[in-house]
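User: Second chain of the day. Same drill as before.
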Amino acid sequence: MHHLAISFFAAVFAFSVAEAQPLSFPEKPVRMIVPFPAGGTADALPRIIAERLRQRWNQAVIVENRAGAGGNIGASAVAVSEPDGYTLLASPPGPFAINGALYKQLSYDPAAFEPVVILAEVPNVLAVRKDFPAGTFAELVEYARTNPGKINYASQGRGTTSHLTAEMFQAMANIKMTHVSYRGTAPALVDLAAGVVDLMFDNVASTLSLHGSQRIRIYAVAGSKRVEQLPGIATLHELGLANFQSVTWFAIGAPRATPAPVIARLNEAINEVLQERSVRSQFETLGATPIGGSVAQMASFVSAERNRWAQVIAQAQISLEE
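Assistant: Same format as last time:
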């Protein structure tokens, strides 16, 4: 018994000493996998963060693009990675909060990613072609109700945020429009500016310059608050669609079972980077508002987003193959 007691207390002491040791993470390069192509906001924001982390840690932080299948290819690669904090997923909502309800089968569990931090959000807006016959949001809704199916709306593709936001809009406004699916934002906005399609939901960063040059007209903000650059344009909530909420956000997650101290180190470091004036300026140039916050706050936010989009997808009966 005496020997057992000594062994027990020795083990407890060793554990306590280990716990007291400062976390040495990172000791090797960290990879951030972006599950979308290079060049867009989803790629640019993690690269800004990665460079600042590299300088802070004196350790390489590599951004790697693994695009395809609505973000599923890159997300799957992270999901099966070693849960040690050295492989992270840096992504907009799809893999975290939408694809689980959208795809019939997935090779990963979107809910299994360990939340790290929300990097930023970009409000979505409701934009119409410049010569659309309805001059205000109220007139647009009235026109849609008296002409069901006549309004054509563009999206970045089936199951994208722009598509799902339009589906939510139809349900909440009690209207019916016709979907025109594109492969990405650029061709959809080209056709909106050319008057080929009537309407589109897209993020304010992509639409602001077209609105400023009067090639399209922004009628409403889809986020919870007005956009600083468009102070006179109301939110859909203000215009009568209670609690309408659609923002494009960007977050970082880690594989399931990544140790809590590592998650905490990542969260702390990224939050500090997000407070830097130069980083905030770079984000704002891209039309993104830095967010940050705790691991628990990200978990709560993503859970709410997952529920929101699952309801929209179920109501619209949208289903895709991976």
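DSSP finds eleven helices and ten strands in the chain.

User: Great, on to the next one.
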